[in-house]
Amino acid sequence: MYTTEQIRATLKEFFGFDQFKANQEDIVRCLLEGHNVFVLMPTGGGKSLCYQLPALLMEGVAVVISPLIALMKNQVDAVRYMSHTGSTAHFLNSSLSKAAAEEVKRDVREGRTKMLYVAPESLTKQETIDFLHAVGVSFYAIDEAHCISEWGHDFRPEYRRIAESVARIGKAPIIALTATATDKVRTDIKKNLGIPDAIEFKSSFNRPNLYYEIRPKTADIDKEIIRFVKAHEGKSGIIYCLSRKRVEVLAEILQANDIKAEAYHAGLDTARRSETQDNFLMERIDVIVATIAFGMGIDKPDVRFVIHYDMPKSLEGYYQETGRAGRDGGEGICMAFYQRKDLRKLEKFMEGKPLAEQDIGRQLLAETQAYAESSVCRRRLLLHYFGEDYEPDNCHNCDNCLHPHEHIEGQAMLLCVLTAIQATGERFREDYIRDFVKGEATEEIRAYRHDELEEFGIGEEHDPDIWSAVIRQALLSGYLYKEIENYGVLRLTDAGRAFINKPKPFLIVLDRKFSDEESHMEHAPAGDALDPILFKMLSTLRGQVARENNVPPYVIFQDPSLEAMATVYPQTEEELLNIPGVGTGKAKRYGKRFCELIKKHCEENEIERPEDMRIRTVANKSKLKVSIIQSIDRKVNLEDLAAAQNIDYETLLDEIDAIVYSGTKLDIDYYIREILDDDQIQDIYQYFRESESDDIDSALDEFGDEFEEDELRLVRIKFLSELAN
Q1: pTM to 2 decimal places
Q2: H or E segment and range at residue 178
Q3: What percent of the chain has pLDDT over 90?
Q4: Structural domain tally of the chain?
């Protein structure tokens, strides 16, 4: 047995602490006594100490299974730094040369190594299994254990094989650790590892020092981020993007604006990723722009802000990534930019995956949408998602609490929802109940003949947009619970049944409005900064130029471009290139007259131009754009081009749109004529020539089912390229 004195002496000697945090000591004791342990502890809570300290005390080597090579290196370096010898911890993975791997094995065989970090892929190799079987394992520590579960935010198939490898190496206690896991994920992890009896330790998920905020995502996002980072100059921050391409472009934009930033994603070579990580830890740079490949186990306590350029695929991912801010208990700003369009794209990426996986993915996205659009305390929503009650209605440290939204009496609406769930047998998900309450006889509702029930349409008189907020807040208040493992079915609690029998007051707060129109804005300057007189003058000039060229006004410049001009007052062709939707072609063709008008207006009205003009953009023609232009010149099939660039077809059309809107001419006739005949092309072309708008939804309404959205987009590209450029 290990005495309290031994344990605390090791804590002081290696970690420099006089006492443990929270339940660390109980976790350590359980493992030392040979029990299986499951640890759920938020980022910054001290998970690694829970297995590092027992490893130092126990006989044999602790096998630590970790998902990323960079993470292993970081943790091994940390252990070596606090120990007396460089052989106390090692990692064994594909990055080591054969000689280096043999040196590691020698240290392990001779008992000098107490912790051996391995990747799950390495653990399945027969060579590794034979080696570990021979040396004697003290225990297995599975870090980032949420990777085991298909319901987790970072599922990795190779993690599902850990239990099989452990059985072949030899029995020893298992400790599974994660910073984020719902009840469903925890059950899944323990079942897969074969440790249903594991003693479970669950710390509070509440991080009081973290401030949560959601902002609408518009094309002003880059400027917003630049202003924010400059306002927090010298502070460390992480900006997460979903795509590698966006990571690289944003890092370039930050660099162009004198911000010390670097890109980080799995597509970079190992040396570059390692160097970037070290630069961040050593504070040679302030900001990392990254995909989720960055951050696991990064021991930097003073990250002051985490920005999500795109909303993650799940609330677990969001919580995990925001958790990297303020680990020292100091300032931690967590800001995310949201538009519904992003979630629709993520949903589209699931197509082709197994149906069960698609269903899980959609449920996780629905939770993310609910969090982003809700006006309820964000801390309360997050903690509820992880099965923790947060009693206060106001945390005083999120955007919704600092700027409260309208509350209305919702007793009647809650009664509608609870009654509908009861009437339909407590067997359906939120979307079904919403439709039932609103009286929408969907195909599914008709199939169950629920449109014949007396309660069908019970909430018709109320605002149809309110039902998501009612259901969400009923869950928070304990009137409902959601069976996640049963596809998100809503069920009544005892409190919910009591409410039906005896209703009482129930205040609800209305959801925030994130309209689709807001999502499609290309540039949204602050309303109070826009110069309405100049905007009107620019609109008049645009109309004049359009008539001279016999094209619709939007072909010259779109409204968002004019709004930006009336906000930041560009007066040279170079400055005009900073305006969204203005490329070199448009700047040369039309720019002079617009710049002259703006300059004259500024002089006559003694206008001092804003700081915004100093925000520099990077060159419009990124590598991808150049590659697209060159491929179209060679008449490459667009579907083949999308596959070659590793992007989906819709994203390729987005890129081509951006190219032609910025003023570059592209000839895609060779591709269009494979899809449409001359009469069809002419019909669509003429529509855009006569229309006052280039909006695709309006075009779809005009043509009905005659054309697909992609067909309309292709002809719009042809039209803009020929007439605007």
Answers
A1: 0.62
A2: strand 174-178
A3: 40
A4: 5
